[in-house]
Amino acid sequence: MGYALMSAQSLAEVVSSVIAGAELLSQAKADPRRLDLAASWINRQMVDLESRCRRIKEGSSDRLDRCAAIIALND
Predict the structure, then answer these.
(1) What 3-state DSSP class applies to 20?
(2) CA 61 → CA 7, 37, 44, distances in Å?
(3) What is the mean pLDDT of residues 30-58?
(4) Which pLDDT band, with edges at 50, 70 and 90, does 30 fall under?
(5) What is the pTM of this model?
(6) What is d(CA 47, CA 9) in angstroms, rounded to the nearest whole number?
(7) Is the distance from CB of 24 to CB of 38 less than 8 angstroms?
(8) Cα–Cα distance measured from residue 42 to residue 6, given in angstroms and rounded to the nearest whole number
(9) Radius of gyration of the chain from its Cα atoms, rounded to whole angstroms
């Protein structure tokens, strides 16, 4: 559960970007002049989204321990 909570922000950002991309594509369908804008934005976002998804998928609870150790440095 702790890992899910730690990954929630990244997952929410991925979902938000997918929704924004879908909206841009929808606008491009209504006005084809917007297709380049939609494609450009989606291409720029893909690198970040792929990285976030890979980190969420491949991560483990070891990250929780590392985060706890980092937080403890401030105590």
Answers:
(1) helix
(2) 11, 39, 30
(3) 93
(4) very high
(5) 0.73
(6) 17
(7) yes
(8) 25
(9) 17
